[in-house]
Specification:
The complex is a heterodimer. By secondary structure, chain A is mainly α. Chain A has twelve helices and no strands. The chains are: A mainly alpha, B mainly alpha.
């Protein structure tokens, strides 16, 4: 970040992103999904939970663009509402992970010594668990629900952020502006949040963007195993799960939600990778 | 090692005790005939009447002699036996996947990096992004329908056919391979995509270093520059990343073993979690984490082999 004030730094990043077709594609898809989720009640052609026994398992047609499911519900409407779930899961769980990661990483990197040693060993321990095993166990113990899914994905996903923030802090605190801030008597908390953290945010932003992709995948896998979002709430993963029993004669129930997950995750990955390039940062 | 093992057991213990109520609630609610006396016997058997730290102490003291207790399921078999019979197939699938990831991602990454902008590079970039964005269970479902049901080329569940015993040794190997082909390919996909990407990035970065310019300047052949001077340095971080991808690989076995009905540890874990078989859940969590620990140790050792500057005492 050699080019002066942070304003010009972010301008510079934006200019680089504008010229990057990956970033623009990813960003456009994310923006589109946001609008779909926000406008769900207005744009969805039917009520997502409207059961209609006269149109069971209809293939895609003019009235039901993506067909109907085994209860005669409109798949497109369910997927539009499902977009809300995946956005919510992505942002809230990554939000939880990022906050925990920043706090742990900041304390570890700023204070060092025994605190650092203990916290980093804790990170090591968390990283040895096969992540999905841990998530599965906790959710099954707590009763599956969307709230628990978000909390658990957050609680098991902060370790990378903690390591990143710690590493940034370790190198930043050697820079002149930190002793300068100390010498005028600023408190630790001010130094951490006002001076160090803003300078350490670039890699965190990248890892959060990629983290959203991961969280959406995890939620869909949990819903697929029947311990994620519970019916009748439509999530892409749960539409897929309900549809998999009919896959041989109702392919649309499995293909469309899967594609939606793929495209969404792809969009966040594209955005994350381009951000990484634009911010010129590397994740260790 | 020891503090980490200790940490693993603590977290496992905490996870299990997150559940509201007691394990016996679950057992007795399934069986309305269970009397209060039976419940009390159960509590004493599993020391549920003792305070938490005592429970932990008792559990850990049994754990150090590899006594994981008995399963809550009707067969009440020792947890260790149940895990032991499921573990080999899971390890086999994961090790095969790791080997596959390693031998495929490096050439893909290197070739992309040495031919930036080529059709291969663009194609592999597309593959990489789709590879780590596609939900594995969904691909599994689609491939199962395509190759298993529609085309009938590959079996879709289990690890051997019903006539397995009658086959020759060679026939048995082929039978097993046919059953494991889809699970192994699918479980490698994410890491394969990820590692190809990392290899490409590392290679591109290494190629820009001064010593590569030096190698070129002294007249080294282009191939020798890439494979003798660049590759080894580009590979170093990859060894670490392979180590780091082990937890997600093992975690993924829950999904693929469930979908393909493979009787491995992942499927056992799913069953144990769904039936709240606490001793079994705890046992698999501890063993799963230990496997990762061993994997990381192997990664560290290979790092030392790959990088002569590092020596472990």
């Amino acid at each position: 970040m050699s080019n002066g004030s942070s304003g010009s730094f972010w301008n510079h990043v934006w200019n680089r992103l504008k010229g990057d077709s990956f970033a623009m594609t990813g960003g456009a898809i994310v923006l589109f999904l946001f609008s779909v989720a926000l406008l769900a009640p207005f744009i969805s052609p039917y009520d997502p939970s409207d059961v209609n026994t006269s149109i069971l398992l209809e293939p895609p047609n003019l009235k039901h663009w993506l067909g109907t499911d085994e209860l005669g519900r409109d798949v497109l409407s369910r997927m539009i509402y499902g977009a809300r779930i995946s956005l919510m899961v992505g942002f809230i769980s990554v939000g939880i992970a990022t906050v925990i990661g920043i706090i742990v990483g900041a304390i570890s990197g700023y204070y060092g010594g025994l605190v650092d040693e203990v916290m980093m060993r804790f990170v090591d321990v968390m990283l040895t668990f096969p992540t999905f095993f841990l998530i599965l166990a906790v959710i099954a113990m707590l009763e599956p629900s969307i709230v628990n899914v978000m909390i658990v994905i957050g609680l098991t996903g902060w370790m990378g952020v903690a390591r990143l923030v710690r590493a940034e802090f370790l190198s930043l605190k050697e820079r002149d502006f930190i002793p300068a801030a100390r010498s005028i008597g600023q408190r630790d908390i001010i130094i951490i949040f006002r001076h160090l953290l803003p300078n350490a945010m670039a890699p965190v932003l990248v890892s959060a963007t990629l983290g959203i992709a991961g969280a959406i995948l995890t939620e869909s896998a949990l819903s697929f195993l029947g311990i994620g979002v519970q019916p009748p709430t439509p999530s892409w993963g749960s539409i897929l799960t309900e549809g998999k029993n009919y896959i041989e004669f109702a392919w649309w129930l499995s293909v469309f939600p899967g594609l939606a997950i793929l495209i969404t995750v792809l969009a966040y990955n594209l955005l994350g990778e381009s951000l990484r390039d634009a911010l010129d940062t590397r994740l260790g | 090692m020891v503090p980490i093992m200790f940490g693993i057991t603590i977290i496992t213990f905490i996870v299990i005790h997150l559940a509201p109520g007691e394990p016996t609630d679950r057992m007795t609610e399934m069986n309305p005939k269970a009397s209060a006396a039976a419940k009390q016997r159960m509590r004493e058997m599993y020391h549920l009447d003792k305070p938490l730290h005592v429970q932990y102490g008792l559990w850990i003291s049994r754990l150090v002699v590899l006594d994981f207790g008995r399963s809550f399921s009707p067969d009440a078999r020792p947890v260790l036996d149940k895990i032991a019979e499921r573990l080999p197939i899971t390890i086999f699938i994961n090790v095969t996947s790791l080997v596959l990831i390693f031998i495929m991602s490096i050439p893909i990454g290197v070739f992309s990096a040495t031919h930036p902008g080529s059709a291969f590079d663009r194609g592999s970039t597309l593959f990489v992004f789709i590879g780590f964005s596609a939900p594995g269970f969904w691909l599994a479902l689609l491939l199962m329908i395509l190759f298993g049901v529609q085309l009938g080329w590959l079996p879709i569940s289990g690890i051997r056919s019903i006539y397995y015993e009658q086959y020759t040794t060679w026939g048995k190997i082929i039978d097993l391979a046919r059953h494991l082909l889809m699970p192994v390919l699918l479980s490698s996909l994410t890491s394969l995509a990820f590692l190809s990407r990392i290899t490409r990035q590392n290679m591109l970065e290494v190629i820009r270093q001064d010593y590569i310019t030096t190698a070129r300047a002294k007249g080294c052949h282009e191939k020798s520059v890439y494979y003798r001077h660049a590759l080894r340095n580009a590979l170093l971080p990859i060894v670490t990343i392979v180590g780091l991808s082990i937890p997600s690989l093992i975690g993924g076995s829950v999904i693929f073993e469930t979908i393909f009905s493979i009787p491995g540890m992942g499927q056992l874990f799913y069953e144990s979690v769904m039936s709240r078989d606490y001793p079994l859940v705890m046992g698999i969590l501890v063993i799963g984490a230990t496997l990762t620990l061993i994997g990381n140790l192997v990664a560290d050792l290979s790092y030392a082999i790959a990088d002569p500057r590092i020596k472990y005492e």
